[in-house]
Amino acid sequence: MNQLQNKPKFSLAIQSEGYKKLINNTLGDPKRAAKFIAAISSAVATNSSLQQCDAGSILSGALLGEALNLSPSPQLGQYYLVPFKDKAQFQLGYKGYIQLAIRSGQYKDIDVIEVREGEYLGRDKITGKHQFEFIEDEVERENKPIIGYMAYFEYLNGFYKNLYWSK
């Protein structure tokens, strides 16, 4: 018999007194706990693979997200609970990284943009930095295919970094 068949589904486990008590004790606020249970239940309900995972691993990953004050909503992309075998693993999404960076108070600017055909000019031969010339006309730009993505950040102290990933 499959080991998962002996474990209760997450939707049942999260409503058990043991889980509710653990969540209430961990979060310390009944309203916050109710909001947490609703949010994580919704995230699990939309992912059939996640529904097959061990309820304890789902709760563990979700509590990590809660500790970082991030939302489990897949639509927001702050963090994901990723099924791996019969366990759920916490995976920080790029919007979660941005959220944490902004909260740190160390960044002057941070952003990501798609790079369209003709905009990537390669690397500067001396500095190795990626070079771009973005198309100003938005209509023209939108009609060009996406060839990659560029992300950058600048710290308050002036340190700057940009990264490029081809599609």
Mean pLDDT: 91
Form type: elongated
Number of helices: 7
Instruction: Detail the poorly predicted runs.
Output: 1-5
Percent of sequence in beta strands: 25-35%
* Helix-and-strand structural type: alpha+beta
Amino- and carboxy-terminal Cα gap: 44 Å
Largest sheet entry: 3 strands, antiparallel
Strand order of the largest sheet: 3-6-7
Number of strands: 7
**Helix/strand order, N-terminal first:** HHHHHEEHEEEHEE
Radius of gyration: 21 Å
Helix content: 25-40%
SSE blueprint:
Elements: H1 10-13, H2 17-27, H3 30-45, H4 48-51, H5 55-67, E1 79-84, E2 87-92, H6 94-104, E3 107-116, E4 120-123, E5 130-132, H7 138-142, E6 146-155, E7 160-166
Describe this structure in words.
- The chain is α+β, with helices and mostly antiparallel strands.
- The chain is built from 7 helices and 7 strands, in the order H-H-H-H-H-E-E-H-E-E-E-H-E-E.
- The chain has helices at 10-13, 17-27, 30-45, 48-51, 55-67, 94-104, 138-142, and strands at 79-84, 87-92, 107-116, 120-123, 130-132, 146-155, 160-166.
- Strands 3-6-7 form a 3-stranded antiparallel sheet, with helices on one face. A two-stranded antiparallel ribbon has the order 1-2.
- The N and C termini lie far apart (44 Å).
